[in-house]
Structures are given as C-alpha cells and as structure tokens.
Amino acid sequence: MQLVKRFYAGCMHVIAEFGPLQRLTEDARASEPYGWRRWGASLLAIHDVERMIALGLPWWNVSATREVEKHLASRRSPRVFEYGAGASTAWLARRAGTVVSVEHHPDWHERISPMVRGFANASLWQRDLAGENYVGAIDEAGGKFDLIVIDGRRRIDCLERAIPHLAAGGIILFDDSGRRRYRSGIKGCGLKERRFFGRSYCVPYPDFSSILHG
C-alpha cells in the first residue's frame, strides 16, 4: 500500500509541473478555500508541503477544516497544540494566537522548520516517540488549549494525554478518525464526537476527520 501511495504521489507531482496545471494551482490560491477548485489543486500537492502551504490548506477533511476555522475565529487569541507538523502548522499559525506543534521525525522536522520560522506565534518541537517525550510534549507546553490537533503518531495515547489540557469550550481535531485502530479509543474517551466524511484535501477519495468536544 505504501508503494502505491508513493507511486500515486509521484505521478501527481509530475502532472503538477505540466504548464496548464501549474496555472491551475496559481489560480486556485485566490479561489474559495472550501470550493472544488482549491480542493482539485490540493490533489496535485499530496506529500508536497510547500505546495500545500502555498495553497493555504491543511491535509484534513474539507468540512472539518471549515468547522475548525469557525471555532478559531470565535475565540480570542486561541492557543493551539498540534501533534504532527506539516502544512497544517502554517495554516493554524495564520488563525491562532499561538501554536505549539510537536513532530517525531527528525528529517521531517528539519524540512518543516524553515517554513514555520516565518510565523512568530508558532513553535515547532522535535521529540522522540519513545517513552513520554512525544506524548508528554503537551504537558511540557502546559496550560489549556482552545484547539488540540491529533494528526501524528500514537494518536490514542495523545488523545488521553490531551483531554486534561482542553480549555472550556475547546475542541480536538482527530484526523483519519475512520481508521479501525482508533475507533475504540475515540468512543471511550468521554468526549462527544462529530464525524466528518467526504472530500478531503490531497486525496481523490472521501475520508474522515472528527471533532471531539465536551
């Protein structure tokens, strides 16, 4: 499956360099972020974080992304914690008061870091997956968060650790929530779940993201 995904992503990157489609990507930047043109351009940006940041999109379900944006806009200088860095880190930094993002992979952290440095309100940490370093990074950040994003590794462990850090009225965005290995942990976490299924950025098939709240 990973080979198929890499092959697909490679094909999309080649197609994206075709002249007319380069223009499509450029035009899509000015289009409605939840519309079909921006979503179509995101298909050409799969696993291409620079293109995704240029498009101003995270790799989540489209409808869930809209709800997260509304939530952040309703809070005063919202604090955000994110497990799993990427284009979403830049997207969040443009909408939040502060963002702390933790990434486990050293090479990916090194690649993302220059893109995040441009946002004075964002911090990007690298922590090993072993032990408490990664999951416990939210304790290190401390305090309560208006939004917590779970889109990295050890997601159910991260969810359990995140809940005590959720501010009153805050939400958790749990990406890829349709995967079987996550379902029991989500159902048993004690929070209510809104499941979003449908168009998702970067992929040609419908996918899940969930918003968890008290």
Description:
The protein is an alpha/beta fold and 214 residues long. The chain folds into 2 domains: 2-55, no CATH class; 62-213, Rossmann fold, CATH 3.40.50.150. 43% of the residues lie in helices and 21% in strands. The protein contains 10 helices and 7 strands. The protein has helices at 2-16, 19-28, 36-43, 49-55, 62-74, 87-93, 106-116, 137-141, 155-162, 180-187, and strands at residues 79-83, 98-103, 122-126, 145-150, 166-175, 192-198, 207-213. Strands 3-2-1-4-5-7-6 form a 7-stranded mixed beta sheet, with helices on both faces. The longest helix is centred in the first third of the chain and has 15 residues, at 2-16. It starts with a helix and ends with a strand. The model has no long low-confidence stretch (mean pLDDT 92).
The averaged pLDDT comes out at 92
The tally of helices reads 10
CATH architecture verdict of the largest domain? 3-Layer(aba) Sandwich
Q: Kindly, what is the distance between the CA atoms of the first and last residues, rounded to a whole number of angstroms?
A: 36 Å
Fold blueprint:
Elements: H1 2-16, H2 19-28, H3 36-43, H4 49-55, H5 62-74, E1 79-83, H6 87-93, E2 98-103, H7 106-116, E3 122-126, H8 137-141, E4 145-150, H9 155-162, E5 166-175, H10 180-187, E6 192-198, E7 207-213
Parallel strand pairs: 1-2, 1-4, 2-3, 4-5
Antiparallel strand pairs: 5-7, 6-7
Helix pairs in contact: 2-3, 4-6
